[in-house]
C-alpha cells in the first residue's frame, strides 16, 4: 500500500496548470479547506484564483472562492495585529441629554440609590 500526499499532488497539478486534476482533487477531497490553507501558506493565493476561474463546476468554484476570501481576510487580520496598533473605542456622551433627563424625571440615578437603601 502506498500513501500519496494529496498536498504534493495538488501542488504539482497547480505548477503544471492542470485544471482538471485540481478540480478533481478539490471536489473529491474531504479536507479541501486544509489543502487550500496549506497551499496558501506556501504559495500566493491570487495565483490560485486565476486558475480557479477555469473550473467547470460553478458550485465548487464559488465554495473555493469563499474559502480563499476567508483565508485572505484571516491573514490580513493577523498582519494588522502585528503592526503594534491598538484599537480605540470612542464613547460619545451627550451632556445636554443627561441634563434634560435629570430635570425631566427629577432624579439622578434612582436604581442604584434604591437598591443600596433596600439592602442597608
From TrEMBL:
Entry superkingdom: Bacteria
Protein name in UniProt: Uncharacterized protein
Organism annotation: Poseidonibacter parvus
Amino acid at each position: 500500500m502506498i500513501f500519496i500526499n494529496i498536498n504534493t499532488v495538488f501542488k504539482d497539478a497547480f505548477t503544471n496548470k492542470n485544471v482538471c486534476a485540481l478540480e478533481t482533487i478539490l471536489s473529491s477531497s474531504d479536507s479541501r479547506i486544509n489543502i487550500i490553507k496549506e497551499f496558501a501558506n506556501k504559495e500566493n493565493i491570487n495565483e490560485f484564483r486565476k486558475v480557479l476561474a477555469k473550473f467547470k463546476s460553478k458550485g465548487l468554484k464559488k465554495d473555493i472562492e469563499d474559502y480563499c476570501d476567508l483565508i485572505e481576510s484571516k491573514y490580513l487580520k493577523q498582519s494588522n495585529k502585528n503592526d503594534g496598533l491598538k484599537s480605540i473605542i470612542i464613547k460619545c456622551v451627550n451632556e445636554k441629554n443627561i441634563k434634560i433627563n435629570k430635570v425631566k424625571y427629577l432624579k439622578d440615578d434612582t436604581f442604584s440609590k434604591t437598591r443600596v437603601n433596600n439592602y442597608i
